[in-house]
């Protein structure tokens, strides 16, 4: 019900744009965001955005990544610039809704930053 896309292989210093589209079966979306899990690491919050557009970023990505959303399209984005090898991870999107405690999750998209 959440479809993430846009991952791939990019050189250090490069850019990628991730997208996460929510199906029409998901309504009353509140906050949305991205987590990531790198090799041998725990899953961590990368960025989140409220329905009104307030944003929050992990210190490690602030100033390089930009999260945005299109509420009309139920789509979430993550623009990633100045990518570093340590950004290599599987990126998961989520969408919180008003009618249940647990958010919906996307399937994950792999980002590999390597020369």
Keywords:
mainly beta, 7-stranded mixed beta sheet, globular
> What is the global morphology?
globular
Give the H and E element order: EEEEEEEEEEE
Q: Quick one: biggest sheet?
A: 7 strands, mixed
Q: What is the percentage of strand-forming residues? A: over 45%
Count of helical stretches: 0
Uncertain segments are none
Helix content: under 10%
- Structural class label: mainly beta
Q: What Rg is obtained from the alpha carbons, in whole angstroms?
A: 13 Å
Whole-number mean pLDDT? 95
Distance from N terminus to C terminus (CA atoms, Å) equals 34 Å
Task: Give a count of the beta strands, DSSP E runs of length 2 or more.
Answer: 11
Question: What is the secondary structure topology, with strand pairs?
Answer:
Elements (H helix, E strand, L loop, with lengths): L1 E4 L2 E3 L5 E7 L6 E9 L6 E6 L5 E3 L7 E6 L4 E6 L8 E9 L6 E2 L3 E5 L2
Parallel strand pairs: 2-11
Antiparallel strand pairs: 1-3, 3-8, 4-5, 4-9, 5-6, 7-8, 9-10, 9-11
Describe this structure in words.
0% of the residues lie in helices and 52% in strands. With 115 residues, the chain is mostly beta strands. It starts with a strand and ends with a strand. The mean pLDDT is 95.
Brief synopsis:
The chain is mostly beta strands and 115 residues long. It is 0% helix and 52% strand.
């Amino acid at each position: 019900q959440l479809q993430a896309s846009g991952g791939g292989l990019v050189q250090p210093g490069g850019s990628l744009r991730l997208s996460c589209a929510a199906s029409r079966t998901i309504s009353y979306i509140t906050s949305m965001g991205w987590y990531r899990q790198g090799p041998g690491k725990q899953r961590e919050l990368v960025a989140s955005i409220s329905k009104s557009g307030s944003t929050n970023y992990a210190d490690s990505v602030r100033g390089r990544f930009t999260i945005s959303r299109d509420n009309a399209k139920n789509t979430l984005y993550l623009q990633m610039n100045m990518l570093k090898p340590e950004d290599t991870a599987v990126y998961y999107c989520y969408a919180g809704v008003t009618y249940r405690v647990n958010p919906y999750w996307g399937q994950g998209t792999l980002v590999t930053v390597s020369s």
